[in-house]
Amino acid sequence: MTVDLEAAIRQFINAARDLQAEPEVTAEAVLQRVIQGYRDVRIDRASLNSDGDMLLLQWGAISPLIAEGPADLRNASADDIAFEQSERQYIDFTRQVFAAAEDEDADFDDSAVQLSMTLVYGQATGDEVSSNQWIENPRRIDNAITKFRDDPFVQRLMAAPASRLVATVQHCG
Fold first, then answer.
1. What b-and-e string marks burial along 18-49, b requiring 16 or more CB atoms within 10 Å of the CB?
2. What's the farthest any 2 CA atoms get from each other in the chain?
3. Which residues of 65-90 are buried (b: 16+ CB within 10 A; e: fewer)?
4. Does the pLDDT of residue 104 top 90, yes or no?
5. Residue 123: phi, psi to the nearest 5?
6. pLDDT surpasses 60 at 156
7. CA-CA distance, 155 to 76, in Å (whole number)?
8. Residue 108: in which H helix or E strand, if any?
9. For the chain, which residues make up each domain, given as ranges?
10. Of 63, 46, 45, whose CA–CA distance to 54 is shortest?
């Protein structure tokens, strides 16, 4: 199925709301939802051949955004955004979309959008090794997910209930 970017954002926000409504949410459940969307839904004008639609897997320690529900930050000011003061362990699944493949004048920072689901866990201990992994194409999902799952930090948290799920839509720049 192919949808335009705004429809993809609506689907993402609805999926995030569904996951946030679950009594317990795990990285495994979010990963399955994200992978299914990446395999099944193409976004109009986001070329797979030129890195226009990729997945980014991230993990380690961050100061997470404070948000009650899915947050569309594309037009938010810095005053509208607040982060926790302390670092927490996290796993993040981000779909990065540049849906301006044919527009030579389109600026990546102003046009590309990240759809992120960040699972927040306990306080960071200070010895977390933050890392990331890109999946440039749906054909590379299986190998990339195997490598992702092999990381000891990821292994420890995949089935653990997150303390919360933070879902955001934002520009890359």
1. ebbeeeebbbebbbebbbebbeebbbebbeee
2. 46
3. bebeebbebeeeeeeeeeeeeebbbb
4. no
5. -55, 140
6. yes
7. 35
8. helix 108-111
9. 2-77+91-171
10. 46
Antiparallel, parallel or unpaired: β 71-72 and 113-123? unpaired
Q: What is the pLDDT of residues 41-50, one digit of tens each?
A: 888 887 777 7
Is residue 101 very low, low, confident or very high in pLDDT (cuts 50, 70, 90)?
low
Looking up tokens 């992994």, which residue turns up? Answer: 133
Q: How far is 124 from 93, CA to CA, in rounded Å?
A: 19
Specify the pTM: 0.90
Provide the pairing of β-strand 88-97 with 71-72: unpaired
150 Cβ contact list (under 8 Å, min separation 6): none
Query: pLDDT at position 83, please?
Result: 80
DSSP state of 158: T
